[in-house]
Batch of 4 targets.
Target 1
Amino acid sequence: MAQTPQPTASSERDAPLFSQHAAIVLVMAVIIGGLVSALTYCKSRSLADAALAGLFAAGASAPVLHKLIG
C-alpha cells in the first residue's frame, strides 16, 4: 500500500503570520495614527478627541498605504 506523505509540523510553523508588506503597512498606519493623536491632544487637550482622531487616521491611512507601498 502506498502511503501519502503527512504535512510536517515544522512547515506549518515556518510560515509567517503576516507578510512583510502587511507588517510595513500596519506599522506605518500606527505611526501616522500616533502622530495625529499627539497633535490633536496638543491642540485640544482632550484624550477622547485625540484617541478618536488617531484611530480614524490609522484606519484611513491603512488602505492608502496598502496601495502606495504595494
Target 2
Amino acid sequence: MDAQVKPVNLEQIRKRPLFSRISLERNCLGAVLAIVMAALYFTFISVVAFSPGILAAPISPGSSISTGVVAGVSLMVFGLVLTAIYALYASMRLDKLASALRKEIP
C-alpha cells in the first residue's frame, strides 16, 4: 500500500518562531566551527609558507618524524573532532527542536 504524503506549506513552517530558532542555532554553530577550522588551517598554511623550518624540525632529537607531520595529522584530527561536535549538538539539541516543530505543524 502506498501511504499518502500530506503536502507541506513551507511558508507556514518558516513563520514559526521555533523554525527561526533552529535555523539560528544551526547557522551560528556551523559558522563558529567553520571559522575555528579555517583559522587553524590558515595558520598551518602560513607557517608552511613563511616559516617552513619550524615544521621541518624533528619532534625530538634523533626522531625521523617532523613537527609538520604531527601538526598536519593534528589538524585532520581536529577537523574530525569539530565534525563530531556538530553531529552531537545536532542530534542532542536540533533534532529535539525539529521534532517539537513537527508536532506544532497541523
Target 3
Amino acid sequence: MRFTLLTTLSLLSALVAAHPTAESSLQKREDQVQTATLVFHGAPVEYTLQVPADGSVVETNNDINVNIIDANDYHAFTNCQFTFGGPQQPTLVQSIDNKTGKQSIIVGPPAPVVSVSCQGMCVPVYGMCYGFDNQWIGPCCNGFCAATRCRPWIAPGNVN
C-alpha cells in the first residue's frame, strides 16, 4: 500500500510538473505578434500592406479609392481600425466568397485608406481554437471553430 501510494504521488507530481501552465501558454501567445496581410483594391489597381497586430498605426502612403480590402490571414473586420481620407467615414461590410472562402471587407463609397491599426490575435485554419484543457484559445482568422479546430468557410474540395 505504501509503495503504491508513493509511486502514485511521484507520478502525479511528475505529470503536473511536465504539463504547461495556462499562464505559460498565454505568455507564449502574447509574445508572438501576428501580422495581417491586407490587399487593398481600387478599380484596376491594388496594393498589399503588412500590418503588425500590436496596435501600431501603419500609414498606407497611397491615395487610390479603395472599394475592397482582402484579409485572408487575419480577422481584420473586427480587429483592425481603418482611417479614411475625406469628410465622411465609409461603411464597411464583411464579405465571404461562398465559392472560394476568401474573406473581404467591402468599402462604400470607395475612399482612400490613410492608415491601418490592428490589434489582437486569431487562430489560422486548422489551428486549435480550444486547447486540450477545453479552454478557448481564440477566434478563427478565416473560418469557424468546430470540434476544437478552426475550419475553412468552405470544404477544401468544393472550390470550382
Target 4
Amino acid sequence: MTVRTRTEASISARSSHRYTRPSWDCAACGEPWPCAPARAELIDQYAQAKLSLAIHLGSVLVEAIDDFVGRPGPVPDLYSRILGWIHAERFD
C-alpha cells in the first residue's frame, strides 16, 4: 500500500504535473518537479496567497529532503528547484 502525504494528495488532485517519489520528477512530463507547467499552475492557484505558496512549497521541500537523505549519489539543489524559484517570479 502506498502512503501519500497530505501535500502530495493536494497537488495530485489539482494537476497532472505532480511530483513522483522518490525521484521528485513530474508524473506528466518527466522533468524535475516543479516543471514549467507545474510552476505556472502553482502561481495561478496561489495568485492571491503568495505567503501560502511559500509555506506549501516549504513543506514539500522538507519531504524531498527526507527522500534524498541517505541515498547514494549526488543530491540535487532542492532549495533552488522547489522553493527558490518563487523569489524570481512575479505575481502581479
